[in-house]
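G., the chain you wanted modeled:
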Amino acid sequence: MRTPVQSRSESSADRMLAAALDLLAEGGLAAVTVAAVARRAGTSNGSLYHRFGDRTGLLVAAQARALARIEAATAASFAAADAEPDDDRAVGLLARAALGIFATERAPLRTFLVEGRSDPRLGPPATAATHRLGDTVSGWLVERFATTPEQAGAAWRVLFALGASQALFDDEQVAVRPLDGDVLGEALARAVLAVVRDGPAG
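Predicted structure as tokens:
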């Protein structure tokens, strides 16, 4: 029985997107060429152009896939935190999950937030996704701790700064002595809790 054309096309597109994200992880934007993606995906250059229009169209689709994964993981993390009645443990769950997401999605975050930020088709979606994530985190903190939006926003920036550093740098670039991920997650949770429980600044 022959595979339906649409099914084969979707499979080919999936392979090309997966190949693009793999190449991003290996060498950043410069590694994602039409030829390299087609070769890695086992497709032709022509099929990539037919499906995505051009290299930038492929990158936009790959970015959308990576952002969808991040948002799905974030939603799952908040569901787990909402089910935890203890505030400290709930924030600890979120802190560890955030570090895990930044580590797992390190390559697309580094690529689209840093390398692609000046590209008019890549930069705005990455910024919008960051803002959505910030609003989600801040809103949850305001609701859970009755803190101010400003304090919640400050806590989000603490979390984002550490997560972004995880995405941008290897641990040995940051410090001589390695740090266990659980220790880092617990420290991040304490920092977030300190900010939201401190009350309005000034």
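Residues 1-7 have pLDDT under 50 and may be disordered.

Shout if anything looks off.
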